[in-house]
Amino acid sequence: MNTRYKVGLGVAALLAATALPLVTGTASANPSDQPCDVSDLVVSVTQDPHSSAGQQAFVLHYAAAGEHTNCKLQGAPTAVTFTKGSGHSEGDDSGIAVVLDDPNGTPAPVNVRPGRDAESRILMSSQAPVSFQPDVVNLDLPAEGGHTTTVSWPSGQPLRGSSVELTFVSPA
Questions:
Q1: Strand locations in the chain (E)
Q2: How large is the greatest C-alpha to C-alpha distance in the chain, in angstroms?
Q3: The pTM is what?
Q4: How far, in whole angstroms, is CA 99 from its chain's centroid?
Q5: CA distances from 91 to 11, 79, 113, 150 (A)
Q6: Region for residue 100 given its phi and psi (left: phi exceeds 0; alpha: psi -120 to 50; beta: otherwise)
Q7: What is the DSSP letter of 1?
Q8: Can you tell me the distance from the alpha carbon of 101 to that of 47, in angstroms, rounded to the nearest whole number?
Q9: For each successive 10 residues of the chain (172 residues), what is the average pLDDT?
């Protein structure tokens, strides 16, 4: 065997050996089986400027709360209510029905990490009459255990009609 070939094989072996830690070092980028809880996320609501014709939509944003967040969301938020005030008084509830946009769908898990947000949407008819002006939306996260959170509703944005639809969580 010539010397250049031996050196080339040695360099290739060294590169292969040093690449192994790089491969194992990316394991934190893999999807997590750990369900997200309220402390893992920053949840917010904004109006969606790109709604379909005849529809008004609001986006529920789920962002990582810390640099080490790596957790899973799946499905749609549950126990969703729209209220006035701080959101904790039963008498201030809108009474608006909340249903799934695709009740026969199969929700895929979505991994949330820094720079990898998730979102779901609240949909309503833009032609329906204004029915309620919420201050907050209360919801259980779309995760196993579904921890409850209260999120400020966009100021001056009313709900329309007697029901809204929720979409499954998806990558943002």
A1: 41-48, 55-64, 71-73, 78-83, 97-100, 110-112, 118-125, 130-132, 136-140, 148-152, 159-160, 163-166, 170-171
A2: 86
A3: 0.79
A4: 18
A5: 73, 16, 37, 16
A6: beta
A7: -
A8: 17
A9: 46 41 42 91 96 93 97 96 75 84 96 97 96 94 92 95 96 96
Which stretches of 26-164 are DSSP H helices? none
Smallest CA-to-CA distance from 126 within 76, 61, 80, 58 is with 58
At 70-83, the pLDDT tens digits run 999 999 999 999 99
- In angstroms, the CA 118 to CA 76 distance is 11
Do residues 37 and 82 lie in contact, with contact meaning Cβ atoms separated by under 8 Å?
no
What three-state secondary structure class fits 29? helix
Determine phi and psi for 47, rounding to 5 degrees.
-75, 140
- Amino acid in position 77: P
- Structural contact between residues 141 and 119, judged by C-beta atoms closer than 8 angstroms: no
Q: Is the dihedral of CA 64, 74, 46, 96 positive or negative?
A: negative
